[in-house]
Design brief:
The complex is a heterodimer.
Chain A: H1 3-12, H2 14-47, H3 64-103
Chain B: H1 2-18, H2 20-26, H3 37-60, H4 64-69, H5 75-86, H6 89-102, H7 105-131, H8 136-140, H9 146-180, H10 184-231, H11 237-247, H12 264-279, H13 282-286, H14 294-333, E1 345-348, E2 351-354, H15 355-370, H16 376-386, H17 390-393, H18 404-407
Classes of the chains: A mainly alpha, B mainly alpha.
Amino acid sequence: MDKPTALAGIRENPIFGQLVRCRRSFVIRLTLATLLPYYAFILVAGFAPHLLGEKIFPESMVTIGWVTGLLLIVGTWLLTGLYVRRANGECDELTAQILAGAEQ
Amino acid sequence: MKRTFKLLVPSLLLAVAFNAFAATETFGNVQKQPVNMTAITMFLAFVVVTLGITWWAASRTKSMEDFYTGRGSTGFQNGLALAGDYMSAAALLGVTSMIFFNGYDGMIYSISFFVAWPLLLFLFAERIRNLGRVTISDIASFRLDQDRIRTLTAFGSLTVVCFYLVVQMDGAGQLIQLLFGLQYNEAVIAVGILMAVYVTFGGMAATTWVQIIKAVLMLIGATLLAVLALSKFGFSINSLFEQAIATHKNGSNIMLPSKLVADPIAMISLSFGLVFGTAGLPHILMRFFTARDAAQARKSVFVATGFIGFFFLVMNRGPGERRGLGRAVARGVGQGDGQRQGDFPVRLPGHRFDVHSIFLYVARVGHGQQHTSHRRTGWIRRSIRACPDGHRRGSRGKSLGPTHVDRS
């Protein structure tokens, strides 16, 4: 099979459009979900650092800053997991369909 | 440059961990030490094992692609190797020492390093992998003028390698000199030759395996230290923080971002550097080629972030302990049994694993690595010398504990 026509076929394939749209919106949402909390944290640390020094309970020594750090790290990890699950499942399935279509 | 960590950190960690006794004895004098057979045996054993892996990997390398990418790692293996690549000097030494000296700053650094990961995965990883190229200059020259891009990246690499390698080799030389009683020059040359051998003969597959070993060792080491440290405080994070605040010279300010990032503009600028700088690390990007397929490559990021997150969290616990330690030990643990005050002795049959000294040493060297000024070497020497007696002299060890330790 001639290479350019195979590529053109893929580009016109509606599943390919679906794959690109699905991936793009998913990636944008995940990037925002990572960056927004992180920069909220950075802005708080930059402009109002004393907020991070507040204690979570009056009698506890653990401060909001350490809890936020823990949540950010765990949350980021979970977002990575979410992406991997979706990309390895749904998106790879669409890719396989497109490739199968191109070979016909 | 990356190669240097590859052997350096695990072997030294191992050597330090198993030779804490020797390390304690040599803190006072970083000049040439008497030859230490235990340390040398441990080090050589590690070298032999990793060289064996290199030989094994080399025997399986059949093509150029094998050599540069060592394709074929599973997601879990590649994830561990990624974590090993990543938990290098910056994480182990830099973050530990930063928490030790400035408290919460270390947490900000950890979070920023960590946030880079998903961005890397979401935005770059797949595209780079799909190009099917091997190095960053291959990728950059895909659509651009090949000759110019390659010249540019060569200049970039050589400049970075020059500065970076000098610091790394200097650190390696100092540590080996300290632990094994080798001459500094010999130590540096030996480490340099070893690096060259590993990479030249083993290629990427060997590098992957050495990174896996390193990651496992570092995870075990950090977890052990965190557990031992917390056990000193009855596994109560609360009392750990309490002691830390009570002992640290900055008091409750260690719970806040310090002067280093006090200015909002500096803070934002730092966060850009940390996040996007980390997302562009070439040796991390390269790891997306070493996995078997795209699905495994993605999975490896999940594994790596899990381990790295865990590592950062235990690192943040472990060092926190050290701040509180001076006082806790002075109150009872270390008194009268011939221990130096401030030590954290864990007795195991036949050996004394002096965890506190290891962390202290690592923290000192790490802190020194952040200051690559001309007086750096002297600074490390002085601070190491000040370490064991830091409480008494109150010189460079002042952040450890005030002079009241003397009086108590």
